[in-house]
Amino acid sequence: MKYRTLGRTGIRVSPYALGTLMYATRMGNEPAESARVIHKALDVGINLLDTADAYGDSEEVVGKALKGRRDNVVLATKFGLPAGEDPNQRGTSRRWIMKAVENSLRRLQTDYIDIYQIQRLDPSTDFEETLAALTDLIRSGKVRAVGSSTTPASEIVEAQWVAERRNLERLRTEQPPYSLLNRSVEREVLPVAQRHGMGVMVWGPLAQGMLTGRVRKNQENTLRRAGFFKHLNDERRIDVVEQLIPLAEKAGMPLTHLAMAFTIAHPGVTSALAGARTMAHLDDLIAAFDVTLSDDLLDRIDEIVPPGTDVGALDQDYQPPAIQNPHLRRRPATERAAA
Question: Is 55 annotated in the active site?
Answer without folding.
Answer: yes
